[in-house]
Design goal:
disordered C terminus, alpha+beta, four-stranded antiparallel β-sheet
């Protein structure tokens, strides 16, 4: 028994399975992450080293070449190049596609520990190159009215952004980091008296080294008293400007000189290399980065809610202005693709109605579109495919293909019905006849798209979601064409027997060859004659005789040359 015949015999089962699949798909649709593009992961690492005050030639000789000699032999490295600039070295490692980047990063760190660098060079930092590192949300903090001292206003803005706004936004779910830029960033300025320092035979570097050695907290061991043990620490970190000025920089012959004796220590601001203006006013910028697996739209919505809760704390003196929100662009792009898919589906249905000229047949085919799409969403959820331009583009591309299978099956059913078959027989036999052709057509299309999911490189990561989406949609459409379409086409076939207590409503796949099965139909009938059964099997060219007894059972007998003599007795309560 074919799949189409089983579907015709058990319509309630088909509806239950289809309803459950559609329900799961609708639930999965609300849980799918929404992004602009699929997650792109470049197999590369960047080793950044800072060498303050060094020229590019020294950076290349003392830092870059030493790092390259060590990390260049790491497993999986395909290409390596470096950039040596003033005070900074960048060594970029490109690995083969498919390399486990977590293990690669561990191996590179192990090799970096073996590199001997000058003492004044900071420890190298390992960076993962990822397009998702771009901020998803940018906003500015400005004062509504200018104060008497613009520099002081910017300093207070920067301090408020660092101490209050940043901490509130760091706690937002899905936020990985909050970076504050602009304004005047506080720092301590030490203005040295060169003459007095020269009298002590000290250089500026000596003074910096002594300050660095003084501004530390050290462990002093432990003390035991009875059964208790106490840890001893020396607390010597600077907490105020006065602490910095009181730091001892010179001691000889009982004479002690402090930093305040040879320099002026005061609060100041770092030199600015960029100025942020919003509507003509200087502002402080706050950039928000999402976690690697975070949903961009959801994280942006959480940030907007946090900003609304933050408004009362800003008072009447400060205001925030959103200057970039990646989620709005993503939502706009997704809406455009969604509207294009919907318009394509409507146009396809209208074209189908124009050629079929049957509202019933058109509705049967049109039903497969939303059903296939919703079930596809459930499969996307199981395979971690997000809603993005590529996956929705795949759905839009598959909308036209979804109808192909249904149209082929429905057209053959209509052809069988025009040849004299009843609706139920035409649905069963018509679907079975074209099942092989429909399967071959669907597999041919899948064979074109599915290999894209296994392509290496950026192309594979970019088109994987689209390939999987088209594949899922086509598989679902194939199943619906072999189950839902025959079942709906056969619906109403009992209308000719309305009023019957029992009627021949189902035949085997080759009922002209081996079997004739009678089953019950709804309704009632007062009498049945052999002429009523003759039209059910015009292709066989035989007559089936039926008789009904008083016990509520009846017999069907086919001619021996065309049918296997077969008797079915069914007891049906009226």
């Amino acid at each position: 028994m074919t799949l189409a015949e089983r579907s015709i015999r058990r319509p309630i089962t088909v509806w239950m399975v289809l309803t459950a699949a559609i329900l799961f798909g609708a639930i999965a649709l609300g849980r799918l992450s929404l992004d602009l593009l699929p997650e792109l992961t470049y197999p590369s690492l960047t080793i950044r080293t800072t060498f303050d005050g060094a020229a590019p030639a020294e950076v290349e000789e003392q830092v870059t070449r030493r790092i390259e000699q060590r990390v260049g032999v790491a497993s999986g490295v395909r290409k390596m190049h470096s950039i040596s600039a003033m005070g900074q070295s960048d060594v970029v490692l490109e690995f083969r596609w498919g390399t486990n980047m977590d293990l690669a990063a561990i191996e590179v760190r192990e090799k970096l520990d073996l590199v001997r660098l000058p003492l004044e060079v900071e420890k190298p930092v390992l960076l993962r190159l990822n397009p998702n590192l771009d901020p998803i949300f940018r906003l500015t903090l400005t004062q509504i009215e200018d104060g008497p001292d613009p520099a002081e206003d910017l300093r207070l803005l920067r301090q408020f952004a660092d101490d209050f706004v940043k901490r509130r936004l760091d706690a937002v779910p899905g936020v990985a980091a909050v970076i504050v830029a602009g304004g005047f960033e506080e720092e301590v300025h030490v203005q040295i008296d060169q003459e007095r320092l020269a009298q002590l035979d000290l250089s500026v570097q000596d003074l910096a080294n002594r300050l660095q050695a003084t501004n530390v907290n050290l462990s002093g061991g432990s003390l035991k008293e009875g059964g208790q043990e106490y840890l001893v620490r020396t607390l010597n970190e600077f907490e105020t400007i006065k602490d910095i000025g009181d730091a001892i920089i010179y001691e000889a012959g009982g004479r002690i000189l402090r930093l305040a004796d040879v320099a002026e220590v005061k609060e100041g601001a770092k030199d600015r290399d960029a100025v942020m203006r919003v509507n003509g006013r200087e502002a402080v910028e706050i950039a928000i980065y999402k976690e690697g697996d975070g949903n961009t739209v959801a994280v942006a919505a959480n940030v907007r809610e946090a900003l609304e809760r933050l408004q009362p704390d800003l008072g009447d003196e400060m205001q925030t202005t959103v200057i970039y929100d990646q989620s709005t662009f993503i939502e706009s792009a997704i809406d455009e693709v969604r509207q294009a898919a919907l318009q394509g589906a409507v146009l396809a249905v209208l074209v189908l109605l124009l050629f079929l000229r049957s509202i019933r047949a058109t509705l049967i085919v049109a039903l497969t579109i939303p059903a296939s799409v919703l079930v596809t969403f459930g499969l996307m959820r199981n395979f971690d495919v997000s809603l993005n331009v590529m996956s929705l583009g795949g759905i839009a591309l598959a909308v036209g293909m979804l109808m192909d299978n249904a149209i082929v099956v429905l057209e053959n059913i209509a052809r069988r019905q025009e040849g004299g078959d009843s609706l139920r027989i035409a649905a069963a036999e018509g679907s079975s006849e074209v099942s092989g052709a429909v399967l071959a057509s669907t597999l041919t299309t899948i064979a074109v798209f599915l290999p894209l999911a296994f392509v290496d490189g950026i192309a594979g990561q970019l088109f994987e979601d689209q390939a999987l989406t088209v594949t899922f949609a086509l598989i679902v459409s194939l199943l619906l064409a072999m189950t839902l379409i025959p079942m709906l086409s056969a619906a109403g076939s009992g209308a000719a027997w309305r009023g019957c207590t029992r009627a021949p409503v189902y035949f085997g796949t080759t009922f002209c060859a081996d079997r004739l099965v009678w089953s019950a139909a709804r309704g009632r009938v007062r009498s049945a004659t052999p002429a009523d059964w003759t039209g059910l099997c015009p292709a066989a060219g035989s007559r089936a005789e039926g008789a009904m007894d008083n016990l509520g059972s009846w017999t069907a007998v086919g001619q021996p040359d065309r049918f296997t003599a077969h008797t079915v007795t069914t007891r049906i309560d009226p």
